[in-house]
User: What shape does this take?
Amino acid sequence: MAEKVSVVIPTFNAGPDFGELLRKLDAQRGDFELEVVVVDSGSTDGTKELAARHGAVLHSVSKASFNHGTTRDLGISLSSGEYVALTVQDAVPLGERWLADMLENLHKDVRVAAVYGRHIPRPYAGVMTRALVGNLAVAGSERREQEIRDPEIYSGLPPAQRRRIAAFDNVSSCLRRSVWEEFPFGEADFAEDLRWGKKVVEAGYTIVYEPRSVVVHSHERGALYDLRRHYVDQLVLEELFGARMVPSLPRLILGVPYSTRHVYTLLRREEPAPEKKPKLLLGAATYALASQLGAYLGGKVPSVSRLSPKLHAWLHSILGKGV
Assistant: This one.
């Protein structure tokens, strides 16, 4: 009898890519029975009806109650597979072995708690999006095994290295149910996957990055989103790893031109035409300023909170939403 594998997808007005995602799930090949669980947060665009037509187990929650951690916990609790894949409503598997390639790692080694896969940008993605996605850890072509062999050595590593060991990504992942039962995601407004990865590797499990498993996933973002994203990311990095990416105003002043140069180099690889240079330089500078400023403001949260709780609440209400 084939094993059952579940796929859990949180949705809200999923849009045109959701149908393609469901069709690609139907087309997955492997020796397993596939179950799809959709947890919807109040869609009004036909998302629920589309999921039902594809035979998904459908559960609805209010939009106000959605939480990146607990909503995924709910979806997993409603599923029945020994292995549970997690994805998002607009990530589309590239091939028919998206799931099988992740499962292979879980079957081979009981120490592997979870696997996450590679992202590639959409065919119509802009140059900035292509450059940034291509620079992510989830864009690499080399398989990685992330584990802690010596807890004492791990605790002495720089924050950036500890983060790489704990990396996990729920845009495209598959986990072992028995490990999730030991370590549910729990309440998390942001970075529920990184929080979970840290708990799991520190408990002695292994996480695998499997680049053969690929999803098409990218977004066109603006400067305000980049500011907010790096603000929230800094909050999480300090909480989990004690890392402060832009710890002072001088570092911010120096970091903007350094980041501009780095991003400009990435953009030129994607768009080498000489006439595009001014536009690319402006785009690189805008991104650099937004990202560095966001990280700087995120690092200032503890001191602002102590000095003025009201100012902190106001700042967080603006920068902590929409990510």
